[in-house]
Amino acid sequence: MSARFSLWVALATLATAPAAATRFDQIADSVGGEVERVWNIEGFLRVRETLRYNLDLDHGLTPSGDALFPTPPGDPAAQLLHGADMRLRLDLSAHTLGGGVGVFVRLDLLDNLSLGSTPDGIPSASVSQRPAESALRVKRAYGVALTPLGFLAAGRMGNHWGLGLISHGGDCRDCDGGDASDRIAFITALGGHLWALAYDFTATGPLASRPGGGPAVDVDPTDNVHTVTLAMLKSVSDATRLRRLKADRTTVEYGLVLSHRFQDNDAPADYLPVADAEPLQASQVMRRGFRATAVDLWARVTLPWMRLELEGAVLVGAIEQASLIPGVLLDGEVESLQIGVAFESDFGPHDGVIRGGFDAGYASGDPAPGFGVNPQVTDAPPKAGDLDGAQAIPGRDNRVDNFRFHPNYRIDKILFREILGTITDAIYVRPHLRWEIATIGPGTLHFDFAGVMSWAADSASTPGGTQALGIELDPSLEYQTRDGFGIGVDYAVLFPLSGLDNGVAGISAAPAQLTRFWVSYAF
User: Fold this and answer.
1) pLDDT the model gives residue 460
2) Are 194 and 236 in contact (CB under 8 A)?
3) pLDDT of residue 288
4) What is the pTM of this model?
5) Inter-axis angle of helices 3-15 and 238-246, to 10 degrees?
6) Choices 2.40.160.100, 3.20.20.70, 2.40.50.100, 3.90.180.10: CATH for 3-117+135-270+286-522
């Protein structure tokens, strides 16, 4: 076995360790076999430094008075923003001696903490960092048991499907967040496939304390949000796929998931900012009538010289009453039809020096101004030329049709990751190349390059009023050892096109650059 292939196997095995199980098949694989250790701890420490240059694109303010990206208040003409952050992740697992029962916990310490953000005392006189608030975050805590009929899992567990378009567990080194669901799931094998049925406690409340303490009581079950998911999956572990590659065998994997979410009533005063908090009353509970259904198909074909992977999702939803003010009703339902597709490919020998491929994707758009990535309920309606804003204005525009990829599904380093925040209302193509430069000591030095060209699905969403968004070039250099140490530098330059111009003020967008240095220690 070559040193390159050995390293690949080691890294893939680490990425799918039981304590980090996220997909239905990984959860099922986390118990049921012999275990070497009853207790296990794995994880990584990550530190990143990022330099951002002109990410506001010299665009000026939008019609609503916002910049495309934050600028330094002390020097608005300055172009450079920089900052460092870190994360220590611990994945803990405990198994019974027979391996049939396991409990798993994920802890993130100093999670995405900005370095230097907690000076002790006056900043100029600080000689230490004070303990960060919320320094420890319990991301997951769940159990899995093998029963005569299948696997039963319960608790707060990771949630990932396919390439991660809709749900993404955030297990990667460079991921910033990740999905976790308060879930009860049953997984069983039937007809050569895994079948999973899950119920999620998506949202519960308002809550009230009980006399004598103990768990809080959900005082109004009618406003809870419920999610039911049915999945069918045929897949293998990463280690199995790599063994089949070495034996020159083809692996075909696929899956289909159907998920339905619903909420009958709502109590907006429980989560909206209000001047004076008051106990929940009957007058604060209002009809919502929310229904949403997602269908997601994923498939992957892996050959010794090629990988093809595809995920496509359709979301259909409706809200009978969109008003957030009890007693104030709006006419007409708010409806939604959203479509997202992502395709990835790699060509070249799996243990070769050079591999390349071509990726592409589509996220449906909406003709409302702005991309609708992160609209706030308290914001005013967006204006033509804004970068973001609500995609529905009930009574005037009762549709929200922009599909939003999960923020952890990344194809670039500037436009979608930094400026927009995710892929939505867009079409993109992405050729890419990976070159293994050399084997140095216990690791390998890699060079990666990707070029991304993107367009808006609906020109009315862009600041410039046209579809062309930009061309981005993303080279990276990385050294990774089989011992778990990694270090690298990423660079990116975005050449914005007419869709990112300031169409109102007649200002052409200028190029942006980004450099990110990172180091990680896995164990």
Assistant:
1) 95
2) no
3) 92
4) 0.90
5) 160
6) 2.40.160.100
